[in-house]
Amino acid sequence: MRLKAALFLIFCGLLSAATWASAAEVHGLWVWKSQSVLEAPRAAEALRDFCQSQGINEVYVSVSTRNTASDDNHAARLISVLHRSNIRAEALLSSENADEGGKHLDKLLDHVRQIIQFNQRQPDRFDGIHLDIEPQQRPENKGPCNLRFLPGLDDAHRANPHYAGWARHSYNDYLKQSQ
Known about the structure:
The protein is α/β, with parallel strands linked by helices and 179 residues long. It is built from 7 helices and 4 strands. The longest helix is centred in the N-terminal third of the chain and has 23 residues.
């Protein structure tokens, strides 16, 4: 009898651990050219409906450095619609050259600051910043085992004045603390 009870408890523990693990999984969607995507009528609701139908619980929304007030309104509305459905929204910032430092890195860091300022102005905020730094897209970084760009890539991430260490914190952590 004790063996059956022990096996039952182990089974229940494994079942609840598996359920928790699947609930904690992130199923994300990258939305490029989001300004034009969000201009369509009911775009936020259509994106939300698609995410719900596909089990997507996190959306990475590209944000231009040339955002207008209209773009900010579209983004704020999208974030609100997604949050009401328990879908996270992160600002997606992209660069092929930030690992080179200088003006390229300065441009990316200015973009990070724009997102932080956006979050300070909005009741519904981005949940994080998703950096898509891709030096491997440049021709000089193509080819097998060509990893010369890695130190610059690490430097680009660490250059953020709010960076606290990849292993312990993320931009998401900073955004939560600054809200």
